Amino acid sequence: MTTTILYVCVTCRGTPPVDAPANLRPGARLLAEVERRLAADGDKSIDVVPANCLSNCPRACSAAVSGSGKWTYVIGDLDPDRHAGDIIDFARQHRAHEQGVPEWRDRPEHVRKHTIARVPPVKPAAPSQEQS
Amino acid sequence: MTTTILYVCVTCRGTPPVDAPANLRPGARLLAEVERRLAADGDKSIDVVPANCLSNCPRACSAAVSGSGKWTYVIGDLDPDRHAGDIIDFARQHRAHEQGVPEWRDRPEHVRKHTIARVPPVKPAAPSQEQS
């Protein structure tokens, strides 16, 4: 099974934007809560990666779930006090699905209603014809 | 240089949504115009791929630019009669930049103002330890 990456935007100021030191921004708090929950579960199956701006500022906080050969999903309108569990659940569903496209009805309600975009997988480059 | 992929959502009905046969939907018209322009330029450097829904319906039409080891960008609010050139220009800039992050000031105005989201590259999986 390929690695599933959960990117969490740590520069997100939330909606409406709050003025807070970098480590107390809503995005940074969302990252901390995701990491705390996964550690509490002993779950090392999701690779949590902080990101500097996912360009979804009008609908912050933001996270994205991706993996080699799989669809990428961007989720928005995330509240660090309410939605950390939802994006963890979605990342686990994404990991379990071969193409990274969990059944719609199974996805957390927040994910169903606040998916910002999705992008097909980048196909691996074709082997060079020069190789034997 | 790695392949640059320009995904164009062919199911987009535009904003506000129009009722049209599949091949005349705004998304399908955007794809046709992108392909027509690249063919006219003799440009085969961009791999144009039709996509079925990029989940950006409220801000359709939609396209995404991606490439192995590069950032992915989703662009919205695209009008097939006005913005085919903008996403081609952005795809060429993305192709020319090692990380797929063209200089902000160089990007087409529509791309600067209507970027829906961006996602970091998926790192290639580490080589299996089982391989010799």
UniProtKB/TrEMBL annotation, chains A, B:
Residues 97-132 are annotated as: Disordered. InterPro entries: DUF1636, Thioredoxin-like_sf. Residues 97-109 have a biased composition (Basic and acidic residues). Transmembrane segments: none annotated. This is Metal-binding protein. It comes from Reyranella soli.
